[in-house]
């Protein structure tokens, strides 16, 4: 037996002033699963979320909850009838209500409210603040109360729009992890909007990468990071190095040796993309580098232009002998060669991507 996803959207589109800001977006989320809608500013993430919440209308496409159609652009269940919890960046607690009052706000059965509020405040570590008012809480504490409030009515679906962006880094990590634990324990299906790849990697079971209103790739964080759909998808997660090439006979010849380009027509310009942490570095042996290997190809000579210690890794910038181009390498721990040192760089064939160049 297959059960319907908790939340499903099918081919949602929305235009403003003749411009499609959400373009044929489909997604489905199972109970207890977190999907992150990840993409740059203005790509249509919040609009997608607002359509699902019912506070924005789609031009076409359907929203389904547990297999039931709740909106098709013509007929729509109102936002409060959708069983969907919302948590937005600019969440506002009711200033005149205590923590207790805020969290209990959406609960209709007042006789059971106290127990539910206490349970949730315990989960988010806010039990001792139950009688305080919002102005007596820090930003992070307010955020936890907002989370408890959103979860109190046991929404089957939670939509979160950059909910952690107001917090400093350390607090954010803690609150993210707590939030995730609570949402998993409640079996909530979560759609979390963020423009930060680190947040998406940390939170998501599945990432939906969005660009110009479209979902360009969907998959587990590991998959999206290690098998990006195109150069821009690769570049969204880290700095990248790009080596240009041209395909001849399903191969492209470069100063780093040959790269396979299966199925790419002759004459196609390609970009060979490698993340800085995947460049291999070897030392110079009186003007010679290490021997070529099938895994790493041919080494190319470079000189160090700059080396900086970043804490858990070192960033080394190179100038390539063959054309004067710049490449970056991230090396674990401390590696600070002097400026001008000659070194040899190799590109691991199992770590690089070959993409036809976007016109
Ligand atoms: N009501 C509206 N009227 C006109 N244009 C709108 C409206 N709402 C959103 N837009 C436009 O649609 C595009 C997508 O907006 P949206 O808020 O969905 O982006 P986003 O991906 O959430 O970006 P950010 O990361 O900056 O929050 C933007 O160009 C925005 O200006
Ligand atoms: Mg937004």
Automatic annotation (TrEMBL):
Enzyme Commission code: 3.6.3.30
SUPFAM superfamilies given in the database record: MOP-like (SSF50331), P-loop containing nucleoside triphosphate hydrolases (SSF52540)
Pfam families given in the database record: ABC_tran, TOBE_2
UniProt key word RNA-binding: no
Top EC class, one word: hydrolase
A single GO molecular function term of this UniProt record: ABC-type ferric iron transporter activity
Stored Gene3D superfamilies: P-loop containing nucleotide triphosphate hydrolases
Domain ABC transporter, residue spans: 7-237
Keywords, in A-Z order: ATP-binding, Cell inner membrane, Cell membrane, Hydrolase, Ion transport, Iron, Iron transport, Membrane, Nucleotide-binding, Translocase, Transport
GO biological process: quaternary ammonium group transport
UniProt GO cellular component terms: ATP-binding cassette (ABC) transporter complex
Signal peptide: none
UniProt cross-references to InterPro entries, sorted A to Z: AAA+_ATPase (IPR003593), ABC_SmlMolc_Importer (IPR050093), ABC_transporter-like_ATP-bd (IPR003439), ABC_transporter-like_CS (IPR017871), ABC_transpr_FbpC (IPR015853), Mo/tungstate-bd_C_term_dom (IPR008995), P-loop_NTPase (IPR027417), Transp-assoc_OB_typ2 (IPR013611)
Protein's UniProt keywords contain Kinase: no
PANTHER family per the UniProt record, alphabetical: PUTRESCINE TRANSPORT ATP-BINDING PROTEIN POTG, SPERMIDINE/PUTRESCINE IMPORT ATP-BINDING PROTEIN POTA
Protein name in UniProt: Fe(3+) ions import ATP-binding protein FbpC
Organism from which the protein derives: Flavimaricola marinus
Gene this chain is encoded by: fbpC
